[in-house]
TrEMBL record:
PROSITE patterns noted in UniProt: HTH_ARSR_2 (PS50987)
GO MF assignments: DNA-binding transcription factor activity
Protein's recorded name: ArsR family transcriptional regulator
SMART domains reported in the protein's UniProt record: HTH_ARSR
Domain of life: Bacteria
Domain HTH arsR-type, chain residue ranges per copy: 10-105
InterPro entries the record matches: ArsR-like_HTH, HTH_ArsR_DNA-bd_dom, WH-like_DNA-bd_sf, WH_DNA-bd_sf
Amino acid sequence: MVSHRAAPVHTHPDEVSVQTALATLADPVRLYLVRELASSDDWTRSCGSFDVSVGKAALSHHFTALRAAGLVEQRDEGPRRVNRLRRTEFETRFPGLLALVLRDD
């Protein structure tokens, strides 16, 4: 059976305002997702591999927000949707911001 789900829409970080970036990263679930992706190799984490206390629909909403803020890129690999943190592109747009939010202190 062939999956006919739509490919995710990605916003380039150059099109994102600092307010949007900050608002997106202010959410604890999204911050957790970004931190997890930062500590993982690109394209190794599927959406279902994160230990979050939200349902599938809410998780999908969080990934949509991360894509809209230019933080995450996704692609389909068979039945899985895998993720990559757009670290280099985001750093070019907002120098130092990602490093600040990834700190543990």
